Amino acid sequence: MNDKIKPAHQVGPVSAFFIPQVMQIGIGYLSFQQIITKYSQQDAWLASLISGALSLGILWVVLRLLENERQFGMPDLFSIHTRIFGRRIGTILNLFTVTHVLLFAIMSLRSYIEIVHVWVFPQMSMFLFSLIFCLIAWYIVSGGMRTIAGVCLLSFIYLVPLSILTLFIVPHAQFENLLPLVDHSPAALLKSCYELTHVYLGFELLLYVYPFISNPREARKWAFRSALTTVYFYTTTLILAIAYFSQGELQNTIWPTVAYWKSVRFPLVEHIDIIAIVLLLWATIPKVCLCSWIIARAVKFTVPKIKMKYSLIVILALMIAGTTMIHSGLQVKRLNDVYATYGVLIIYIYLPILLFCQWIKKKRGRSAAS
Amino acid sequence: MKQKAVLIAPLIAILFLSGCLPTSIIDDVLLVEAEGVDYLGNEKVMGTITMPNYVENPNPGSAGAGLPTTASMLRHLSGVTYDGKSLVDRFQQSGQMPIRVGKIRLMLFNTAMAKKGLYKQIDLRNRDPDSPRDMNFAVVEGSCRKLLTSADYQTQIPVARYIQDMIEQNTEQNYPESTMESFMYAYYGDYMDPFLPIIRKQGDHIAMHGLALFKNDKYVMRLSENRVFTFKMLFQKFNQGVYDYEFAPNKHIAFKNVHTDVNYKVKNGNSAAPDIYASVNVSAQVRQAYPKSLSKASSPVMEKKLNRHMAKQSAQLVRRFQRKGIDPLQLGQHVRSYTRNFDGKSWPERYANARFHCKVDVTIKQTGISE
């Protein structure tokens, strides 16, 4: 397992842009405005900037962790865990982080189904949809990392029209709503920041993908560009939401982004919102693919005997089961909360601690050698 | 190869099996285009829905294809139900084909309904994922049912599209925007009240008839047609409106505004009597004037007159709103925007005492092609 990844299996450095980007932008994009403005009303965009800056900081931590690890073997989270904490504790920690990845996949898939149920097909069978979905995921993941990166690129391209659709509401926006600037206490802003972290989650998956990206020096730059693009994307969407809705209405709207789409009018295509929701399928496919690939790799790392080909099927079956077990919108919301808290715990608390541990280990190693 | 077939076969089977979701094919459903609600009293309403009729006239081109050319589909349904009931569900039992809300264009309320309060109807619309946010709401003077079901209009296009076209072209001129989007904005927003256009049937056609101003969800005040320009001038940036000014008895001058913008400033927003300053710039193009009343040389005089007149009218308008306790101009929102730590709780009382200062600056760009 400590071999280097063959260049034939590696992807170009630009993938470090597309992969985290696509992981970050998902179903949360449809609804994040309402939750965030609850605490800091017109200043929520500031919270978005702060959260974005924090996510850039954590990205730095992630890349630092990986680069420090390169000299000891494979630069990914699994190797870091086992090297620093030993085989047994390392495996437990792997389980701890990989559970979050599994939760991420289930959450993305289930939230997408939820959206389709509410807006397009209330009768759609959850089981059959997730089955077909996971078959697609199986097909893509069987193609290996390069195929997954390709799907991420496609997803990015397909989602560009959706962000352009948002421009249609600019003429209806009243930017006066953003005033007075910075009229909220730091506590309210922090609360909003906390609510926002879960929409910025996803870039940390670089921890698992990194060894597959060639030319790390370039890749790091692309990773930062990706995080910056996400910050820009979410902040502009948020500013538009504040300007387009009155605060009372925003608190009343569960999916503000879909409400934007509902007010777009084309002469022939009357319901742009439905088309946009169907297109959003492309935001979910790469997530489920990458997550199941990561989990399959984790299984292979722990028990090298099991081939990824076989574990993948079990993992996808697990995802289908997990998805169909969640019945109501309320449960989706609760799961989302669990996922968000878990994510905050990992990103803002666990990763910095890990970097610290790595540093200690390095110090000790050096003092032992001298 | 065999392995692949084993995998692909169930996939195809699943795709076909799960494709069996209920469909709504446009030829096989009745697509509701307009809903009208007349209040009957005692929480009962008379609901009316209209559907477009795609095969009204014999079509010489459709030889044998589709429906027989003499066929006519159900065009409207009405009946009594309770306030807040989804009309589509109510009339499903009388539907020739499934009735669906695809792209509803219009929602009408008669004055009694609007005076009684629309909160149930608004909730119904806001909850429904199918209703588009660009649909139009309007208050009808008279009966919605009569307006929607009359067959004596000059135009042949379905009445819902007729009314929507009329409202839309008017909102590009004198009337302020009044789609579901802007109504919900003001209805759910704090420190503001919504408004809707009033329409009524006049013989063989329909006409706009001023604005209905709401206090929360209740219609409390009517703004007559000649005040609508002033209202829109204070409400938003616009052009293409026409204003008619009677500067002396039976002597009129009418101008079209090339451009109008409005700026608000607020002082002492948290005091008992906030000062609201509105400054309006109007670029006007004179369309019509009393003979010999206006020339290039005398236009500054007329401008001054207009400035004074429009400022006075604006102040009067706002005073009327304050007396009624309604805020369709969203002045409260302006005060909130320009005041730090805005005190929202006491705003309703302070609004009544707010001092509104209006400065209008009319520029007559041209006076026509003759002296």
TrEMBL record, chain A:
Q: Give GO BP annotations, semicolon-separated.
A: spore germination
**Claim: Transmembrane is one of the keywords in the record:** yes
List the signal peptide residues: none
The protein's matches in Pfam families, at most eight in alphabetical order, are given as: Spore_permease (PF03845)
Q: Which UniProt keywords apply?
A: Germination, Membrane, Transmembrane, Transmembrane helix, Transport
Predominant place of localization = membrane
Highest taxon listed in the record's lineage: Bacteria
Where does the UniProt annotation locate this protein?
Membrane
InterPro entries with a match to the protein in the record: Spore_GerAB
Q: Belongs to which family?
A: Belongs to the amino acid-polyamine-organocation (APC) superfamily. Spore germination protein (SGP) (TC 2.A.3.9) family.
Q: What is this protein called?
A: Spore germination protein (Amino acid permease)
Species: Sporolactobacillus nakayamae
Automatic annotation (TrEMBL), chain B:
* Alphabetical keyword list: Germination, Lipoprotein, Membrane, Palmitate, Signal
Membrane topology qualifier:
Lipid-anchor
Q: Does the keyword Signal apply?
A: yes
Q: Where is the Spore germination GerAC-like C-terminal domain?
A: 210-368
Domain (Spore germination protein N-terminal) ranges:
25-200
From what superkingdom does this record's organism come? Bacteria
> What Pfam families does the record point to?
Spore_GerAC, Spore_GerAC_N
Q: Which InterPro entries match?
A: GerAC_N, Spore_GerAC-like, Spore_GerAC-like_C, Spore_GerAC_C_sf
Q: Indicate the family of this protein.
A: Belongs to the GerABKC lipoprotein family.
Mind telling me which PANTHER family this protein's record contains?
SPORE GERMINATION PROTEIN B3 (PTHR35789)
Name used for this protein in its record: Spore germination protein
Query: Taxonomic lineage per UniProt?
Result: Bacteria, Bacillati, Bacillota, Bacilli, Bacillales
